Amino acid sequence: MSGPQCCENPPTLSPSCGAGIVEEIGGLKAYVSGRSDSKHAILLISDVYGYEAPNLRKLADKVAAAGFYVVVPDFFYGDPFAPTTTIQVWIKLHGPDKGFEDAKPIIAELKSRGVTTIGAAGFCWGAKVVVELSKVSLIQAAVLLHPSLVTVEDMKDIKAPIAILGAETDHLSPPELLKQFEEVLSTRPEVNSYVKIFPGVAHGWSVRYKVEDEETVKRAEEAHQNMVDWFNQYAK
Predict the structure, then answer these.
(1) Degrees (nearest 5) of the Cα angle 203, 205, 206?
(2) Rg of the chain on CA atoms, in Å
(3) 20 to 30 A from 120, CA-CA: which of 3, 107, 110, 142?
(4) DSSP assignment of 133-145, as one string?
(5) 29-58 pLDDT tens trace
(6) Measured distance CA(196)–CA(173) in Å, rounded
(7) Model confidence pTM above 0.90
(8) Is 74 helix (H, G, I), strand (E, B) or coil?
(9) 3 pLDDT band (50/70/90 cuts)?
(10) How many CB atoms lie within 10 A of CB 116?
């Protein structure tokens, strides 16, 4: 998590971007998009730059268009990573273990509203939160995109169907590590799994792409569609 790739290509945060709204769910502010009466919800768990990243909110709107109620929580309490600090200092205040605990009341509130299936996608930092939610069966489908902090040992305890979408150039989760994930998951036929490595892109590409970089945008959109397809299959 301490490598520079984790923090490359920072987004320009915008609290007003997106077609959805910001409201409180489970004690946290969250960007929400889609029909609130949907029985199928998706948590998008951000990278270190948080829930105001325009590309992430744009993706939330895209997932909502597929029929889901999408929730993008502010797990950092208004304190996303910024260049004024170091990732080593910041992560001590915002560990994914805290994100995991904060996700529980969000899931509980969604269920109290009548939601019957919940999927979760995690980007970089958020991937570890998704893994922990899957271990305790709080979600019905999981997607990890260019994960950080996730280990081979984690794959032994995953319970939800899981798709792992990685980058060819990724010092945090290199293709060699993702192949180890795949090997462990292949020994667990009771858990449906899918591992895909995208060529020509680097860590963070799915939400930190530059709109003028046509090839990276194309790969990001491919990953987004893979994610939506996974949720359509396992979270509906």
Answers:
(1) 120
(2) 16
(3) 3
(4) HHHTT--SEEEEE
(5) 999 999 999 999 999 999 999 999 999 999
(6) 12
(7) yes
(8) coil
(9) low
(10) 13
Using CB atoms within 10 Å of the CB of residue 133, give its burial: 0 to 12 exposed, 13 to 18 middle, 19+ buried: buried
Q: 37-60 b/e with 16+ CB inside 10 Å = b?
A: ebebbbbbbbbbbbbbbbbbbebb
Q: How far is the C-alpha of 219 from the C-alpha of 26, rounded, in Å?
A: 33
* Region for residue 18 given its phi and psi (left: phi exceeds 0; alpha: psi -120 to 50; beta: otherwise): left
In b/e form, how buried is each residue of 144-176, taking b as 16+ CB within 10 angstroms? bbbbbbbeeebbeebbbbbbbbbbeebebbbbe
Q: Apex CA 40: angle with CA 35 and CA 41, to 5°?
A: 80
Give the integer Cα–Cα distance in Å for 194 and 100.
Answer: 23
- The pair phi, psi for residue 141, each rounded to 5°, is -155, 145
Q: Burial, 95: exposed, middle or buried (Cβ in 10 Å; 0-12, 13-18, 19+)?
A: middle
